[in-house]
Amino acid sequence: MNGEKELLNFVYQNSEMGAISIEEIEEVTDDPSFLEELRREKSAYLSINAAAKSAFERIGCDEKGLSALSKIRTYLMINMETLTDKSTPHLAQMMFLGNNMGIADAKKNLRKYREVQSGEAFDLMNALCSMEEENAHRMKAFL
């Protein structure tokens, strides 16, 4: 797989992980304003995910989604983290840390694939990174 495809697949998987994680956290919270923010973020992740999938279709390739093991691991981690503390500040902290991990991974991949300095994959990666930076900032209000 070339750098552009790998970068695009990272965007696809990262946005998929964001949406899946939010779905799990949505089920735990009873805070209406936090839930509204989670839904806004999930919508943004799904939009970027759909754009990455469309980009793959245009170049005639299949995306590689998250493995079943990754999905199960995420489900178990979130459920263990919320077993004893389902408070909004704790959930916001989980989201904040997840966003920052996504930002770090995005920046590493942008550096790794320096040859991809333009095009749809590059633009989607930058959009994903910017979105996660804004999400992390917005989560601070719930800490």
CATH topology heading? Ferritin
| Average predicted confidence as pLDDT | 92
Inertia-based shape: elongated
* CATH arch. level architecture: Up-down Bundle
> Beta-strand level of the residues, as a percent range?
under 5%
Straight-line distance between termini: 40 Å
CATH-assigned homologous superfamily:
Ferritin, core subunit, four-helix bundle
CATH class: Mainly Alpha
Report the count of strand segments.
Answer: 0
- List the total number of helices: 5
Major beta-sheet overview: none
Give the fraction of residues assigned to helices.
over 70%
Overall domain count: 1
Give Rg in angstroms. Answer: 15 Å
The H-and-E topology, N to C, reads as HHHHH
The residue ranges in which pLDDT falls below 50 over 5 or more consecutive positions are none
Specify the structural class.
mainly alpha
Structural commentary:
The structure is a single chain. The protein has 143 residues and is an all-alpha fold. The protein is built from five helices and no strands. Helices cover 78% and strands 0% of the residues. Helix 1 packs antiparallel against helix 2 (32-59), helix 1 packs parallel to helix 5 (120-139) and helix 4 packs antiparallel against helix 5 (120-139). The relative contact order is 0.19. The mean pLDDT is 92.
